[in-house]
Task: structure prediction
Amino acid sequence: MIKTHSARLALNYKGLPYKTEWIEYPDIAPKFKSFGIPPNAPGTSNYEYSVPAIRISGGSYIMESRAIAKALEELQPEPSLHLDNGYTDSVQAVAGKVQGALMPAGVYRIPTKLLNPRGSNYFRETREKRFGMSLEDLAKSDKGGENAWKNAHAPMEELKAILHEHDDGPYVMGEQVSFADFILAGLWRFVQLLDEDGDLFERGMKFDESFPRHYEACKKWLERDDH
Result:
């Protein structure tokens, strides 16, 4: 979900016209294979095929948000995503740690809050096989609840440190927005979609004042969310 939102933020930032085509989870692999899209490289994803994917002018299909961002940068260099600013890799790694830590606390809500019945069934079957337990049991395990927040504390401190490197502006580079910001905004948008009564998103925003300041600064590129 982080990757889906970061790719859309990049499209919105560059002002490129696009049309969203939704796809159910069970259809991702067969459809992307039919398009001739190569599978994810080993170690980059838990699944061979994943969203987002785009078809750019000329007919080429591209999967995975970083690859999409690179293609968009080549297609329209300005305004730049500043992919080589030194923050893209670090923010992506830390945001992944935060998502991984908080996932047990909210993943059980994905089937009912975000998915249609067919996609919901597929999501449950594949994730429960991966975790070795039901999503509800995962939330009640020693990885869920308050332990999820304890596990998220260290990487959230890392995000806090990154955002405080340049206090002259809300973004990781200071006054200049970059793709690293869209990765982070994508994380919080995903958390916000799973939030219930402030238990995830609002709690996360209270960790440090730089978090809501950053998210508010990125919200204009989230206005077209097509969710």
Summary: The chain is about 55% helix and 5% strand. The chain has a mean pLDDT of 94.
